[in-house]
Amino acid sequence: MTIELKKLTKRFGTLTAVDAIDLNVGDGEVLCLLGPSGCGKTTTLRMVAGLEFATEGDVLLAGKRVNDLAPRDRNVAMSFQFYALYPSLTVAENLAYPLYAEKLSAAEISKRVAQVSKTLQLDGILKRTPGQLAEGEKQRVAVGRSIIRDPKCFLFDEPLSRLDVQLREEMRGEIKEVLQDLSRPTVIVTHDQLEALTMADRIAVMRDGRIEQVDTPHNVFQRPSNLFVAGFIGTPQMNLVPATLKGSDGAGIAEFAFDGGQALKIQVDPAVSQLSPGAKVTLGIRPRNLEICQDPVEDSLSTKIDMVEPMGAETLAHMNDGYRDLRVVTDWRVPLAEGDHVHLRFPPGVTHIFTEDEQVLRSAT
Ligand code: ATP
Predict the structure, then answer these.
(1) What is the number of the ligand 1 atom nearest to the C-alpha of 191?
(2) Which sequence spans correspond to the domains of the chain?
């Protein structure tokens, strides 16, 4: 079973909410649609579920075009959150509820409740009502309710958004395990990158109705394909620093001039040799990759500490030298004081280069 979207488009009047997206979700794969508010995630999911008609393009389930099928004939399970349990029904009744409309025999319903209960380890609480459950148990029941119809695929819209932080953390792991056991194509919509990074096999990062990158969680973080993905994924945000290329040696050592007149050599991807001296670029470096030196060293950027935010084991320092803001994360033991002048080194191989068209410049691997 697979989900395929081909040039899928949705327009609301003059607004293009989803703009010709192509996407495949493999059998058993968990794909997260991740992006800022209003980028078209929910609309995409609703078109897969059949709750919204596509303006153009196709939705294929198991290779079959389903654009004209009503939601219930598509046999997909869409759940808006894992939380809406009926308070007066027992866990077993809550689980069975979606099956009543299917006109199944009592024996079949009992069998399915038993199966789901076993998968989600609910056997000990089947007779309780939601009020008698711990939060995590409620969530497991709600997951059970959305999978009991044994649909061909699962669609979840911000499933954890109503939960407090601690429970979210627990549920992320739990849901991931359940989805792996179920082995159905699954699409999860979220604007929470941590949720996507932890639960997904692949992430599709969306912006303005388009998909900017589809890749593994590791790659969207380590190998962003453009400036938007680089800035969107990762907390604190990647530093994105405008610079001008002065020259490079062919092996990836390039000299860059920064606004304000400083220039330094940085080891970057050898593909930098494709650019001519004078090219405008944006250098991307994660706050944990910049190195703070108290004393001036060759090829470092002088700056001033603006604000220091202790974060427990680490410290987040905000730097500003009048030309740019930079964020640096260091071990908490590194002494940092607001107003101090420091020097930032760009260690070899961790700086991404984005060209003027906002695409990453990288050698083919
Ligand atoms: P959020 O995380 O805020 O839900 P989203 O990425 O899921 O955002 P969508 O809900 O898919 O985004 O909305 C995409 C765009 O389409 C938005 O600009 C939204 O205002 C618009 N939109 C969604 N549904 C409708 C509708 N029924 N009529 C008109 N415009 C709509």
Answers:
(1) 2
(2) 3-232, 239-354
Residues 6 or more apart whose Cβ sits within 8 Å of residue 320: 303, 304, 306, 326
Domain 3-232 sits in CATH 3.40.50.1110: no
Is the distance from CB of 220 to CB of 212 less than 8 angstroms? no
pLDDT at 98: 86
Question: What number of other Cβ atoms are within 10 A of residue 78's Cβ?
Answer: 20
Rounded distance from Cα 40 to ligand 1 centre (Å): 6
| Predicted confidence (pLDDT) per residue in 257-307, tens digit | 999 999 999 999 999 999 999 999 999 999 999 999 988 889 999 999 999
Identify the H or E element spanning 348: none
C-alpha 215/C-alpha 349 separation (Å) is 21
**161: pLDDT strictly greater than 90:** no
Residue 144 has pLDDT above 60, yes or no: yes
Task: Give the distance (Å) from ligand 1 centre to CA of residue 42.
Answer: 7
**pLDDT (tens digit, 9 = 90+) per residue, 205-245?**
999 999 999 999 999 999 999 999 999 999 999 999 999 99
Which atom of ligand 1 lies nearest, measured to the CA of 52? 27
CATH topology of domain 239-354: OB fold (Dihydrolipoamide Acetyltransferase, E2P) (2.40.50)
d(CA 221, CA 223): 6
Residues with CB under 6 A from ligand 1: 12, 15, 17, 35, 37-43, 191
Nearest ligand 1 atom to alpha carbon 33: 6
Strands of the sheet containing 15-25, edge to edge, are: 15-25, 3-12, 56-61, 64-65
